[in-house]
Amino acid sequence: MLTRHGQCYFVTFTDDAMHFTVTYLLVVKSDTFSNYCQFEAWVQTQNHSTVIKVLRSNRSSEYLSEEFNKHLAAAGTTC
């Protein structure tokens, strides 16, 4: 089922330190990376430059792209 804006997927990110979850609606699964970058920026803003240490995922293809892995490595995040 699609939303009004054509979104049929979602991704959630949870900040374990703040016990806060953000859900993003996606048109395509490949939007996961850009939404992760938004979440990462939000975490750093809210927690005063705190970095994300671990990203837990189901290891599906949207989390395994070369661009995503390079970004995580540069940020010091393990997956």
Keywords:
32% helix, single chain, 2 helices, alpha+beta, 79 residues, two-stranded antiparallel sheet
Any overview of this molecule?
- It is a single chain.
- The protein has a two-stranded antiparallel ribbon.
- Helices cover 32% and strands 18% of the residues.
- The mean pLDDT is 87.
- It starts with 8 loop residues before the first strand and ends with a helix.
- With 79 residues, it is of the alpha+beta class.
- The protein is built from 2 helices and 2 strands, in the order E-E-H-H.
- The chain has one domain.
Tally of DSSP β-strands: 2
Into which percentage range does the β-strand content fall? 15-25%
Radius of gyration: 13 Å
What percent of residues adopt helix (DSSP H or I)?
25-40%
Shape: globular
Order of helices and strands: EEHH
Domain count, please report it: 1
What is the secondary structure topology, with strand pairs?
Elements: E1 9-15, E2 20-26, H1 32-46, H2 66-75
What's this model, at a glance?
This protein is α+β, with helices and mostly antiparallel strands and 79 residues long.
